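Q: Structure tokens for this one, please.
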Amino acid sequence: MRLLIDSNAYSNFKRGKTATVEALARADEILIPVPVLGELRVGFKGGSNAAKNLLELEEFLESPRVVVQSLGEDTSIRYAEIYASLKSAGTPIPTNDLWIAALALETGSILLSGDTRFDAVPGLIRQ
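A: Here is the predicted structure, written as tokens:
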């Protein structure tokens, strides 16, 4: 199983949330989108444990099952399709979430996220 994780999934993993820890343990491959890395690093800068959090993130990224997922032209096409679909339905989501959803669809991944706003994205499977 291929999981693509949102920033809240990574945070839940670090907090030891059972469902998230178990989902990640079952995954054959864990994709972490570049926008999620940005969100995490911004969050770390505002906290008192920035150095520790960055070190733990780097250790997580070193796992052979973890792949940093970049944005590409195909991602931009999916982004535009999702944006248009959600806008016409009156259910827009934040920009970073559009990129995350586009990457999940592009890679055929299950999105591991606690954000229910992703449920509005057609064809996206969320755990």
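A few notes: The first strand starts at residue 2 and ends at 5. The mean pLDDT is 96.
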